[in-house]
Amino acid sequence: MTTRIRFRQILLRWYHAHKRDLPFRHTRDPYRIWISEVIFQQTRIGQGIDYYRRFVKRFPEVRTLAAASEREVLALWQGLGYYARARNLLAAARQIVSEHHGKFPREYEKIRKLKGIGDYSAAAIASVSFGLPYPAVDGNVMRFLARYAGMPLPVMSTQGKKAITEIASDLMDRNHPGDFNQALIEMGALQCIPANPDCGKCPFRKSCYAFTMDRVAALPVREKSAAPRSRYFNYLVISHQANPGPFYIRLREDDDIWKNLYDFPLIETPAVIAPEKLTDTREWKKIFGKRKAGILSASGIHRHVLSHQVIFARFIKVTIDGRSPMPYQLCRPGQVRKFPFPRLVDKYLNNPAG
Known about the structure:
Blueprint: H1 4-18, H2 30-40, H3 45-58, H4 62-66, H5 70-77, H6 83-100, H7 108-112, H8 119-130, H9 139-149, H10 158-171, H11 177-191, H12 209-212, E1 229-239, E2 247-251, E3 262-263, E4 266-269, H13 282-288, E5 293-298, E6 302-305, E7 309-320, E8 329-331, H14 343-350
Parallel strand pairs: 1-7
Antiparallel strand pairs: 1-4, 2-3, 2-8, 5-7, 6-7
Helix pairs in contact: 1-11, 2-3, 2-8, 5-6, 8-11, 9-10, 9-11
């Protein structure tokens, strides 16, 4: 490997020549840096920029976010997934107002104590906004430094994360920690990509362990992950009439995926089931009681992939006799945007014939 000083020089020169022009790189406001970090942790830049702009336009500073309702925040977040991040944003904003008089804390330890903020986000905010030398280690940084240093440990293990953080801290440019952290992230995002990186164009090719030892494809070392859990959702799109009109939705309140989002009344089964078989289930009888309900149509299977589970969903249109209300929220087509839905349900609402 090259010297620390030379490493910093090469990295920052490359960064200033290749960095993307992103809206959150034109500010040191810790609130906006925080919002950007939370949105882009597990979201592609191209998808997340519009969300970032809408979010800071609606909530331009921490007090406006703290005063918002959870339903409003979730509705604005709809489509990004990982809704716990949105709930944590709201909780942390209220924490900043109540514990820090509405001022974003300037110390790493206090930033780290905010709801939903981990080591990476705290380091990113502290370094970019306040010039504090804490290494911001995300997946891009892990991949680049594991290859560069030839780290043999699995990067997602406790020991691997600690080793990578120590390497990043040792290399840290303490005069420009914000640029240094962003440069490491950008190096992994643009140059040292997961598969088939163009090592011939990498400024570190002469000092990179993985390139010089022909180990690029083998690094970083990763532990085998468990197979995702499969779940089978039968959504009941219930209305009092066959033609498009008001339908029933429900708030998800259980400690499960999509908590505090809305979807349709649901029957979950252990495997794919024919729609007509649902009428024999105990769950069907619990939902409809003595009401006469008939199945009009059923969609095909919609496959929706989450981080640790795969949802196989079918949307089944059901009509019920009479005007007696169901124990759910009645939603008119024009009211759909007032409710936060999971992406799976939102896609169906946008194209119910698909």
